[in-house]
Design a protein that fits this description.
Layout: H1 2-16, H2 20-25, H3 43-53, H4 60-63, H5 67-80, H6 86-100, H7 104-119, H8 128-139, H9 146-162, E1 172-174, E2 180-182, E3 191-195, H10 201-211, H11 214-221, E4 226-231, H12 238-244, E5 252-255, H13 259-262, E6 270-275, E7 278-281, H14 286-298
Parallel strand pairs: 3-4, 4-5
Antiparallel strand pairs: 1-2, 3-6, 6-7
Helix pairs in contact: 1-5, 3-6, 5-7, 6-8, 7-8, 8-9, 11-14
């Protein structure tokens, strides 16, 4: 939170024309931060400059010897990214990754910092898109241990299979009666993918609300909506088999023990909306889903 507050204050100072170098000096940073030229007048221009030139005065040869201070600087850099344009941010990330690519340990350190700031449960700015280049650099580096590479590869697999715009993966599904299918088989218009664990209180509450929703029932009856309830566990789990008998008859109910290989299920319930095998929305709150179903239902009148 301190980093977010710092970046917000810095963004305000950029508008006012205050020197970021002066701000950096007051926070005992590892190296002097850049100061945007005065002719860059608006927030995006100034933050673009700051993100792009952030590491110019950093001696990367010695910086990795002070990992905690380097991590703090990395957090400050990430904190400015929401105020910069996407192309600038991506170019700046690629430039930093390129500078350290010859060193396995340094590439691993960068990836771990990126994981902490952009991917972990405690990340202050959660962004799969920004984390991905660092994860790929570590996963593909031959001078990084197999265990570390495998962990980052697992993150990449989750991100690339469950990001908005991704095609539905070939996740193996098993119905309570043993029938097999693949998630990629469901070429539906308006497919709700609801990762639903009967041992999860929030999942059960979301399930009750969704199953009782009038618009959902109407849309399913009209062939305009398919609800796929996926239990991310073993299909022979007796708790799930018992719970599945109480799920709506017009839902497709399956289990997928490998679900967490393809989807980030750290937060439950996890709800995705897909259309014609393509993910359109991810991590959709149940309130937002019900609102969307209301809009879809109103169009049927």
């Amino acid at each position: 939170m301190k980093r977010i507050i710092y970046s917000i204050l810095t963004a305000i100072s950029l508008i006012a024309g205050t020197s970021t170098a002066a701000l950096a000096q007051n926070t005992e940073t590892l190296f002097p931060y850049p100061t945007p030229p005065e002719e860059l007048s608006n927030l995006y221009q100034r933050c673009n400059y700051l993100v792009d030139h952030f590491w110019d005065k950093c001696n990367l040869t010695t910086a990795f010897l002070s990992k905690q201070r380097l991590n703090n600087a990395f957090g400050d850099w990430v904190g400015f990214m929401p105020y910069a344009t996407a192309d600038t941010v991506h170019m700046a990330i690629d430039k930093l990754v390129e500078k350290v690519k010859k060193s396995g340990p340094n590439t691993l350190t960068l990836a771990r910092m990126a994981e902490s700031w952009l991917w972990s449960d405690t990340a202050e700015i959660r962004s799969e898109e920004l984390y991905l280049p660092f994860a790929k650099a570590a996963a593909n580096h031959k001078k990084i241990s197999g265990a570390d590479r495998a962990r980052f590869s697992a993150h990449i697999k989750q991100i690339e299979n469950s990001s908005v715009g991704s095609q539905l993966p070939s996740l193996k599904l098993t119905a309570p009666d043993g029938t097999k299918s693949l998630l990629s088989d469901y070429d539906c218009t308006n497919l709700v993918i609801f990762f639903n664990d009967p041992d999860c209180t929030d999942c059960n509450m979301a399930r009750v609300r969704l199953s009782a929703n009038h618009n959902a029932k109407r849309l399913i009856e009209a062939g305009k909506l398919t609800i796929l309830s996926i239990y991310p566990g073993n299909p022979d789990d007796t708790l799930w088999l018992a719970a599945a008998t109480e799920y709506p008859d017009n839902w497709i109910v399956v289990a997928a023990p490998d679900a967490d290989e393809f989807f980030d299920l750290r937060e439950t319930p996890a709800i995705y909306l897909a259309n014609n095998r393509t993910i359109k929305v991810k991590n959709l709150p149940v309130d937002n889903l019900l609102d969307a179903l209301g809009v879809m239902g109103s169009k049927m009148k």
